Amino acid sequence: MADRKITDLTEISATSADDVLHLIDFNPNARNTKITLANFFSFIPANVTFGSASSPCNLTIYGSSVNANQQFVTANDTHIFNVNTSFQQAVSIGDATLNPQVIVNHYGYNNLTGYMNAAAANVEIGVTGAGNGKKLEVYGDTGHFKTDGDQHVELSGQLNVIANSMVVGNSSVGQDLLAYGADAVATDKLHWAKATSTLTAAKPAQIVANTTGALYVQGATQLGDDTTGSDVKIVGSSSKSIYFDSATNGLNANITSTTWYGDWTFGDGSTQNDVVFSGTTGNLQWDASASTLVNQNETSMLGALTLGSAGGTSNPNITAYGSTGAKGIFWAGASDTVVANVADANGFTIHGSFVIGADGTSGANVNWHTDTAGEGLSFDGDAREMTFTATSEAGMIMHSNTTIGAAVSGGAGFHHYGPGKFRFDAVPVIVGNSSVVTSSLSNSGANDIKGAIVLQQISSGSGLPDGAVIGGATGLQTQAYLYARLDGGDAAVHVMDATGTETKISSHTNDDQKDYEIADSAFIGGKKRHRRINMIKLAKALEEVTGEKLLEEWYD
């Protein structure tokens, strides 16, 4: 048989798995071998092609029965799967340039199950045309997506649209949209009606006035645009409403009460808007063109009122007119000045505490002027000095107790109380100018003379009473004088009567012979007479005459 050709062998029309094929094996050397059909088709180490572009051919793979098979029909380039098909790995249909359709025809209970990624291809169930739609159901763990083949889609569960737009209807036909709220409440819904282009948010009547409202928008909300505008109306109960008319750009609020939290702005820096709050007998007006706030009637303020700003960045004026036009109270912000111009003789009346300046800060000046130039009462807050200037002989009249230099009545200082009573309590009475030495007048030691009268010395001929003038003057008979003047370099207390007679009443000397000397001087016949009595000599002389002891001496 070795000399026979393969073409001379007997041909058979059917094969079995144990049939043997002649095979030349080149691994490692060329040799004649055999292989069964079962082993040959169990592994083919190369591409397999059935037919060609010019000579296509069909391919049929049978299963356990004739009706269970997989076919490729070249006439329409179609894959046909009969009976059940299971894919253990991912199946890709089409590529980046070719996107073939996948059509699943529903019949009986033969369904397409498993996982499908349709991102790169169209998935079509049923065909277009009335009555050609097919039912589709996609089930999840807690909800499902369902179509009935008649343009109805039902979603059970939660719909999440992430990073993409959701369109209901189109610009030519539109589409109604309904979102129902509470169970078994037909009126509790959000409804977009395509016929009227109206969005209606309805909630049950029992939650009217709930702060959450029927429509809750978190974020910017715009109604209308700059060219077409849009009316907005918020309806309350009892015919109350807030209405914005886009035709007039007017906001009409017919409401019972309003509470505002936050800034409230009318107009801006480039445009102005008037604001009017009307009452029963007057109104409050903001005149935008004049930048003026006008109050036409009384105003009550039960809290703090601030006008202007600290530091002088804004200095408004305040004017309160009286009944006579020119009369009123004026605050000039630029000069920090308050002027009260009143017609009543009572002037400015204050019932209660009145404070000028602040404790512990820079002083404040206070001035009271009369209708006479140069007259007035002034207090210099920085120098802490009170000055009274008057042309009237009446001067300053006080019909009450008066305390000067004392914190309370009865303390150290000058007090007028009574009537007709004066007291210098625990302080010296000083007659003189600022050159008087006061360093030892208020201590608590041995030099304490806070109950004394201190007379400032004056030089002879400089401000002293002139006895020659006083003695010859008319109308001075009711006057006498008490003063201190220099005598031998030291100040001494003197008195002068209405005749011009001067008498030294303080101690004259301190020598042993002239202690307690009494002297006087007088103008007699145009000359000044001086005379004195030596009291020590007088006492010793009387002791010799009477024999009584008149002079006493002792030593500490």
Keywords:
556 residues, mainly beta, three-stranded antiparallel beta sheet, 3 helices, 35 strands
Mean pLDDT: 79
Over the alpha carbons, how many angstroms does the gyration radius reach?
Answer: 62 Å
Termini separation: 180 Å
Helix content: under 10%
Number of strands: 35
Task: Give the DSSP E fraction (strand runs of 2 or more residues).
Answer: 25-35%
Sheet with most strands: strand arrangement: 31-32-33-34-35
Number of helices: 3
How many strands, which pairing sense, and closed or not: the largest β-sheet? 5 strands, antiparallel
Q: Categorize the overall geometry.
A: elongated
Low-confidence stretches: none
SS-derived structural category: mainly beta
Structure description:
The protein is mainly β. Among the domains are: 99-109 and 116-156, no CATH class; 175-217, no CATH class; 457-546, no CATH class. Helix content is 4%, strand content 29%. A hairpin with an 8-residue loop joins strand 11 (177-180) and strand 12.
Layout of helices and strands:
Blueprint lengths: L19 E6 L5 E6 H6 L16 E4 L6 E5 L4 E4 L20 E2 L19 E2 L11 E4 L4 E4 L5 E4 L20 E4 L8 E5 L4 E5 L29 E4 L5 E5 L4 E5 L20 E4 L4 E5 L4 E5 L21 E4 L6 E5 L4 E5 L24 E4 L6 E5 L4 E5 L12 E3 L8 E5 L3 E5 L3 E3 L21 E3 L11 H6 L8 E7 L2 E7 L5 E3 L13 E7 L2 E7 L1 H12 L10
Parallel strand pairs: 6-7, 29-30
Antiparallel strand pairs: 1-2, 3-4, 4-5, 8-9, 9-10, 11-12, 12-13, 14-15, 15-16, 17-18, 18-19, 20-21, 21-22, 23-24, 24-25, 26-27, 27-28, 31-32, 32-33, 33-34, 34-35
